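Design review, sub-item: ligand-bound model
Attendees: FS, YL, KQ
YL presented the inputs for the iron/sulfur cluster complex:
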Amino acid sequence: MQFTPSYIELYEKGELKLRAEKAFEAYRNCNVCPHHCRVDRFTSELGTCLSGVDPVVSSYTLHFGEEPVISGTKGAGNIFFGNCNLKCIFCQNYEISQNYKEEEKHIVSIEKLAGIMIELQEKGAHNIGLVSPTHFVPSILKSLLIAAEKGLKIPIIYNSNGYDSVEMLKLLDGVVDIYLPDIKYGRDEYGRKYSNGENYFTFAKEAVKEMYRQTGNILQIEDGIARRGLIIRHLVLPNDLSETGEVFKFISEELGRDVHLSLMSQYYPVHRAFKEILLNRKLREREYEKALELLDKYGLHKGWVQELDSFEHYRPDFTGDRENPFGNK
Ligand code: SF4
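KQ shared the predicted structure:
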């Protein structure tokens, strides 16, 4: 039996339209993410994400480098949104996330974004992977409405940095099939210092709890492809600036040991990380081993663990061919 994403039913009932309209109102006095900038994004006022209403689509492509249940054999249909709401000094996608003047060239209409979703489906994508979507959730909902009308029927993945607003996430209940958030830091202070995200851990915990409430702890997999559920990503940082133990403690104690976790070792210094003495090197073997020991300590055994040398394979390049930033053959 073919899997039917839940947004189809919301679309047919007219609920998706109502959600999109409600979300759009949040742009007027923007509280779309925890920065709560209160700017009017229908005007030229800019908040921390430096974005208006029309989405910045920096790139879209079939992507084969995600977790196996996301990429499958045909690839995830990833849409990379530009101008992130966080400003991580070590961002591996900094060419699109913190370069808003350049990304102005990649602003598209809501109709065009809907067309991109359909195009990715026609290319055979297993899903639509919304990468860094947080600051454009209302626009994405409007695009999804148009795309559903045009026959979109593959699952939606919400791949965010974890700095999400619970109010917006509630509007995504039944719209998103798979949540794929980061929890970047287990300490608020580090989120502020390295990503310009005030109270990052506090907000990320609430956001992930809401995602978990919507999807539960079962990762539904059919024919080797994830259809519904939650996968939390955690990138281990040098000098334990990710506070990995606190992140795992939260997952284990407040969500449960059955949650799927994707542990990443792919850190390497880029962007402004070269200037930060605690972040200007890649991860050491002992640091990663310690993170693996913490997985055991907190009983988190579901999910994926990257090899330590994986940093060599995850080097997107958005300066050249935007259709192929990962060099897919
Ligand atoms: S989405 Fe952008 S403008 Fe709105 S609160 Fe977040 S950073 Fe500020």
